[in-house]
Amino acid sequence: MTYETESKMIKRLLAFLIDYFIIVIYAAFLFGLTLLVHNIFKFNFQRPSAFLSQAIGFVTMTVPVFLYFYLSEKSNHRGTIGKRLLRIYTKTNTEQSNKSILLRNLIKFLPWEIAHTGVQWAVFYSSQNIEPPVWVWIALILPQLLVIIYIVSIVISKGKTSIYDKIAGTSVINKHSKDLRNYVNQQKGLVI
Q: End-to-end CA distance of the chain, in Å?
């Protein structure tokens, strides 16, 4: 593996860690807000149904995180805060870049939401003293396998694409690469 390849994969990993840190800060904020509301209004929080828990998690965590990635990558910056700090960008290989970025992030966060579903239902069945059915175990294990596939696909492509990038027609490039200059010129309608 060349230095440039290792560098690109390390940049991608570090960008992910920076973005994940932002997500953790957001989750801590939500947790703190929940405690504050509980202490001020003395709400007696009861465990909601698994469906309601899933809906709350989806609206308060999944949607904001998805929007952070989607809106950041479709913006003129072409990347999240982590990507921008490490000078890497999401490039689309199609004319319909917004659809490509949308598809990229839907596929990328599919394991996240499957895992949330598995956790919510595992907690529900556990609270009822019922052994979780097989589908719950699948919902807990499948996301881990998908993430491993994602990581392996990034390593195989030497940091350029993942399986979700290939499906969506996107890739991740360095700011100063020839690919970025060509991409920007194409977006401006300049002949290369």
A: 30
